[in-house]
Amino acid sequence: MSQLESLDERDQIIFICRRLYDKGLFAGTDGNVSLRLKGKDRILITSSSTHKGLLSRDDLLVVGMDGKVVEGQGQPSSELPMHLAIYAAEEKTRAIVHVHPPWTLAVTLSMGSFPVDYLVESKIFLKDVPVAPFCRPGGEALARAVVNLLGEGPAIVLANHGAVTRGKRIQDAFYAAECLENTAKILALGSMLGTLRPIPDWKE
Question: Is pTM beyond 0.90 here?
Answer without folding.
Answer: yes
